[in-house]
Structure formats: structure tokens, C-alpha cells
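Researcher: Please predict.
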Amino acid sequence: MALSDRARRTHDELFRGHVSPLAVTDPELVEVFDNFAFDEVLQDGGLTPRLRLMVQLAALIAGGAHASYRRMLGAALTVGVTPVEAREVVYQAVPYVGMGPVLEFLNTTNDVLGERGVDLPLPGRATTTPQDRMKKGLARQREVAGRQALQAMYAAAPADSQHLQRHLSANCFGDYVTRDGLDLPTRELLTFAMLVSLGGCEPQVAGHVAGNVRVGNDRGTLLAVLTQLLPFIGYPRTLNGLRVLDETAPAAPAPEP
């Protein structure tokens, strides 16, 4: 099997001048993967190259794929993802993946940006203060979950775990999701990509499918994200994400003949 013309063009656009050592040691695998990831799934379309690379970066962070992340970060910067956008993908991962796993990806991001001559630290993008993070976090959470769902979450939480609901509002949404640098629909797509890629987060995936729809990302966009993640996260997690998508935002019935 040889690389298709489109796979070769896409590879050259993303990884200019780079020849993977696997092309020498494992050429059959490289040909199968590159034809799939850089040709077949692209035929299904649905995402711009910049957005496709950002959701793939988010998925690679969630999956702990350090080597692949470094390579795809270079590709993302090549297709026009800005340093601030790349940083915000990593910051967005902290409340969902945790700082423990994310720290190494942050260090890798800073290394890659430094290699490209980007001055660090990048300009700040925080929009909250210690005084208003709870208020602004709740407002952003309402945009994603809806007022009734948010009220139900607080009402259902026992007294001894109310603090976790407050942390979700003030820290996850207040400290992170309110940040500039990426708009809310993009942040919700990144969150969807990370939760699917983590595995075992189906209740949270369902919540963020609904949240994505609420902020303007329709079923087609979410299906496109799953399609572009498939080569990097595998079939089980992709199909689990599809099942949740089908249950939460089902497709319209096919028209009768």
C-alpha cells in the first residue's frame, strides 16, 4: 500500500520536511495510518484545519500522548493556530484532566513555542478576579448548562458536597472557561473532545453534548469532532462518544421514500 496523493499532501502541509522514523522501521503501519488520518477521515470534513488540530490536541492531552502531542502541536502552529490559542487548549485541560497529567504538556508547549522564537510568558487572558470569579463562573455555567439544570445540580448535591459544586462554578468555569483567547463554542468542543478521550466520562459527555448544542455547536459539528478524533483515540472511545451523542442529540429521522 502506498500513500494516497491527499495523504501525502496533507502530511507535507502539516509536517513540512519531517520524515518519521517509523516510515523506515514500520512503513506498512505508517501508510495505513496516514492514509486513514490524513485522507479518509478528512473526506468527511466538517471542521476547519485549525479547529481540527485544536480538538486533536485536546484529545492527545486527555489520552496522555506526549510524543504525538508535540508533533501535532507543531502542525497546529503551522496551519495557523496562534500561540495564545495553543496555550488556551492546555489551560482548558487543567480542570478536566487535572494538573498532574497536564503539567508535562504545558512544559512541552512552552518548549515548542520557545523553539519557534515566541516570547514567554504570553499576554494574560484572565477575565476574573478572586472577588468576582464565582459570580462570573456561575454566569458562564448557566450559558452552558442552562439555569434550570444548574439549579438542579446545586439542589441535588448533599450538604457535605456543596463545596464541590461551588468549586465547579468558581474554579472550572470562573477561572478557566471565562478566559479570553478562545470563544465559548470552541472551549465547549475542546471539553467534549477531552471527555470522550478520557473514557469513562459518559455522564459528563452527555452534559457537554447538551452544552455544545446550547452554545451553537450542532450534532453535525460534534460528529465531525468524533470523526477527526477516531485515528488518535481509537474505536471504543469514539463509539462510546457516538452513543452518548445519539442519545443526547439524536439525528433527525431519514425522510420516507
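Model: Residues 45-117+181-248 form a domain with the AhpD-like fold (CATH 1.20.1290.10).
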